[in-house]
Amino acid sequence: MHAQEEFISDLAFHPLTLDRWKDLESLFGERGACGGCWCMWWRLKRSDFERQKGKKNKAALKKLVRSGQVPGILAYSERKTIGWCSIGPREEFPALERSRVLKRIDDTPVWSVVCLFIAKGFRKRGVSAALLKAAVDYAKKKGARIVEGYPIEPKKGKWPDAFVWTGLPSAYLKAGFKEVHRGSPTRPIMRFFIEK
Questions:
Q1: What is the pLDDT along the chain (196 residues), one digit of tens a residue?
Q2: Which terminal CB of the chain, N or C, has fewer other CB atoms within 10 Å?
Q3: What pTM does this model have?
């Protein structure tokens, strides 16, 4: 195992609150993690998302945080922000609700993991799986019974990191999720069942 592939053991996790906004900014950078997204892809109609890419998406996410809503969990290593997981009740993500491939498989209430973003030098080092476990713990504290994720399983070879922002099935499996449905060959729906 190369030094860069070693797992990170000193991880800490915190919900994104207004006092941690600058940490998210430093992680996402000017481009808002990917092409001005600012983790608003699932929260908006496609036309609205395209119209407000960049600064307007950033302002929309900050407005959510300012209102007291927690849109996700930040991961830290040695006090540096290295990862992000967007999680919340499925109803908070209207674009997910409209998805044909990722449509609801039943009417059980679920919390949804819709984005994982890991800083470049920290990828393939166990951060995604650890972040998923932290997200499940957070959802459990908020009363969730099921946490659902929507990873991408490349048909063959490796996809560019920018295209796997919902994570890979391997990270979900390591975090204790199980596949429960497949709406397409590359898009499993995976669930973590929280014990009472």
A1: 344 457 777 899 999 999 999 999 999 998 888 888 999 999 998 889 888 989 999 999 999 999 999 999 999 999 999 999 999 999 999 999 999 999 999 999 999 999 999 998 898 899 999 999 999 999 999 999 999 999 988 776 665 555 567 889 999 999 999 999 998 999 999 999 998 7
A2: C
A3: 0.91
CATH numbers and ranges of domains, the chain: 11-193 (3.40.630.30)
- Please count the residues of the chain: 196
Q: Which long-range contacts (CB under 8 A, 24 or more apart) does 162-166 make?
A: 162/34, 162/35, 165/33, 165/34, 165/115, 165/116, 165/117, 166/113, 166/114, 166/115, 166/116
Place of tokens 């819709």: 114
Query: How crowded is residue 42: how many other Cβ atoms within 10 Å of its Cβ?
Result: 24
